[in-house]
């Protein structure tokens, strides 16, 4: 009787292992799977992308194509989940996936956009961006709305790019402090991904905005007007730290850009 019980016990253990081991293997492989879908719609054309380095955010302009694809994929995920940035582990898994297309992707500097520090923009969801940086989101959309409508207009890009530059400058003005600069960048990328998530249907426009913002070489529109707008609207929304409750304030854009 005892012997029978023992072998029964062994059988149970074996059966348990047969369940646990495949489960463990399955969860291991899924942990290494990128949460992003890097496929782009058929209208998306990588060869139309200008290779910019995003104001030196990227180490190399060769990084532009994988970076933009990454941004687009984050936007698509944000559209479905409202989440913006990936955490460290998720990001590493996705870089592994991108690596097959661009082997230098690990030295691009993309890892600067990682979810982390609670309270900062890196931890924002689209809902946070709408609530805390709503007028920035709106004004970027407004200033960039003429893109892609009539081919590539460098004037349309000028207005768009100028707003983007301001978003980088507003919060980092006082400090040539690198930490602050990175945080300002994370904030404006959180806004850009949120905008992307709201405009998924407009692939051509998205390509235009990425082309425009990635290339600082295009002309900035009307510096004098820039100064005037900046001073009259300055301080309305502080990008870093999300002042909050600003969603209803009038947005900051040029009413009649042309
Ligand atoms: C992508 O754009 C390039 C240049 O504009 C063009 O030559 C190429 O045919 C396009 N590819 C697709 C798949 O549309
Ligand atoms: C990252 O997110 C995944 C799933 O969302 C979670 O399982 C994992 O623990 C997170 N990792 C870190 C380092 O926060
Ligand atoms: C790219 O930039 C990161 C900082 O974001 C730096 O740590 C890394 O060394 C750079 N890589 C190269 C190849 O320049
Ligand atoms: C810059 O510094 C001044 C005075 O030190 C301060 O009033 C202002 O709020 C700061 N601006 C930013 C964007 O931090
Ligand atoms: C940069 O600024 C932040 C916020 O004001 C501060 O916490 C940090 O210590 C500064 N870093 C350096 C190197 O000055
Ligand atoms: C998600 O994308 C679709 C298609 O572009 C759009 O109609 C919808 O408003 C987006 N949803 C959110 C929450 O932004
Ligand atoms: C923003 O406007 C909505 C309705 O237009 C209102 O319900 C809400 O309280 C306003 N929020 C703030 C912070 O003023
Ligand atoms: C880009 C920008 O806004 N720069 C301003 C930073 O703040 C100083 C005064 O503290 C201004 O003179 C700059 O124009």
UniProtKB/TrEMBL annotation:
Record's keyword terms, sorted: Signal
Signal sequence bounds: 1-31
Residue ranges constituting the SPARK domain according to the UniProt record: 29-179
Name listed for the protein in its UniProt record: Nodulation receptor kinase-like
């Amino acid at each position: 009787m005892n012997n029978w019980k023992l072998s029964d016990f062994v059988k149970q253990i074996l059966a348990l292992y047969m369940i646990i081991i495949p489960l463990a293997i399955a969860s291991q492989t899924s942990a290494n799977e990128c949460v992003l879908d890097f496929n782009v719609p058929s209208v998306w054309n990588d060869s139309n992308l200008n290779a910019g380095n995003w104001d030196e955010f990227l180490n190399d302009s060769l990084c532009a194509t994988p970076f933009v694809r990454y941004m687009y994929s984050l936007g698509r995920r944000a559209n479905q989940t409202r989440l913006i940035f990936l955490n460290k582990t998720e990001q590493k898994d996705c870089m592994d996936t991108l690596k097959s297309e661009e082997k230098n992707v690990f030295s691009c500097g993309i890892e600067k956009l990682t979810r982390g520090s609670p309270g900062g923009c890196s931890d924002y969801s689209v809902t946070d961006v709408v609530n805390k940086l709503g007028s920035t989101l709106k004004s970027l959309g407004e200033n960039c709305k003429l893109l892609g409508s009539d081919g590539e207009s460098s004037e349309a890009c000028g207005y768009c790019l100028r707003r983007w530059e301001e978003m980088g400058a507003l919060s980092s003005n006082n400090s040539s402090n690198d930490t602050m600069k990175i945080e300002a960048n994370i904030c404006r990328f959180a806004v850009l991904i949120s905008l992307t998530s709201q405009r998924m249907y407009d692939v051509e426009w998205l390509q235009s905005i990425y082309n425009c913002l990635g290339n600082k070489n295009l002309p900035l529109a009307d510096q004098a007007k820039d100064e005037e707008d900046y001073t009259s609207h300055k301080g309305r929304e502080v990008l870093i730290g999300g002042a909050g409750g600003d969603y209803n304030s009038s947005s900051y854009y040029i009413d009649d850009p042309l």
